[in-house]
């Protein structure tokens, strides 16, 4: 009887279907992206990976396919001679930001990350603040990644 129960438990462990969600993307526009007059969603238009297809490379928006704990990471090259500011947004709520002030040093980089508890359908994306820009030149500096840590 014990053997039967253990076998059932193993079957549950091995055969429960797991949702896999993981993406990595780059913004590649051949140079500076921005500045724009208003806050703008930064569309990371080049996919490195998009397991589960939850990130849209045409809108820049990640939509949670299942409820769970997710991790998001953003990194960017600022270019230095212009202000830069990126904001990680959950639905319409600001979660974390990263910014750089105009300076003579041309090699400024920044980033941030957050663990988020998402409901199915919650949307996560990166906004670029009005009047700022990031460098998106095809040298793989400006990236946005995310993955499902655990389904709930
Ligand atoms: Ca700077």
Radius of gyration: 19 Å
Q: Classify the helix fraction into a percent range.
A: under 10%
Tally of DSSP β-strands: 12
- How would you spell out the order of helices and strands? HEEEEEEEEEEEE
Tally of helical segments: 1
Oligomeric state, counting identical vs distinct chains: single chain
> Which architecture does the CATH hierarchy give at level 2?
Sandwich
Which small compounds were modeled alongside the protein?
calcium ion
- State the name of the first-level CATH class: Mainly Beta
- Distance, first to last CA: 31 Å
Number of separate domains: 1
Q: Which spans have pLDDT < 50 for at least 5 consecutive residues?
A: none
Computed structural class: mainly beta
Look at the structure and give the mean pLDDT.
91
Annotated CATH topology: Jelly Rolls
Strand content: over 45%
Shape: elongated
* Strand line-up across the major sheet: 4-1-12-6-9
Protein name: C1q domain-containing protein
Main location: secreted
Organism: Lates calcarifer
Keywords: Secreted, Signal
Description of the structure:
It is a single chain. The protein is mostly beta strands and 152 residues long. It has a single domain, classed as Jelly Rolls (Sandwich), CATH 2.60.120.40. It has 1 helix and 12 strands, in the order H-E-E-E-E-E-E-E-E-E-E-E-E. The chain has one helix at 2-15, and strands at 22-26, 31-33, 40-41, 46-51, 62-63, 68-77, 84-90, 93-100, 109-118, 123-128, 134-136, 143-151. The strands form 3 sheets. It has a 5-stranded antiparallel sheet with strand order 4-1-12-6-9, with no helix packed on it. Strands 3, 5, 7, 8 and 10 form a 5-stranded antiparallel sheet that branches. The radius of gyration is 19 Å and the shape is elongated. The structure holds calcium ion. Calcium ion binds at residues 78, 80, 100-101, 103, 105, 108.
């Amino acid at each position: 009887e014990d053997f039967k129960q253990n076998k059932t438990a193993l079957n549950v462990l091995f055969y429960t279907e797991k949702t896999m969600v993981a993406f990595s993307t780059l913004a590649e526009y051949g140079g500076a992206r921005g500045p724009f007059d208003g806050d703008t969603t930064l569309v990371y238009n080049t996919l490195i990976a998009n397991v589960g297809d939850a990130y849209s490379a045409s809108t820049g928006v990640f939509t949670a396919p299942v409820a769970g704990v997710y991790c998001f990471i953003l990194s960017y090259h600022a270019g230095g001679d212009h202000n830069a500011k990126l904001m990680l947004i959950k639905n319409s709520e600001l979660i974390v930001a990263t910014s750089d002030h105009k300076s003579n040093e041309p090699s400024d980089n920044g980033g941030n990350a957050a663990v988020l508890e998402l409901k199915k359908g919650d949307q996560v994306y990166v906004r670029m603040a009005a009047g700022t820009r990031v460098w998106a030149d095809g040298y793989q500096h400006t990236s946005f990644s995310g993955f499902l840590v655990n389904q709930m």
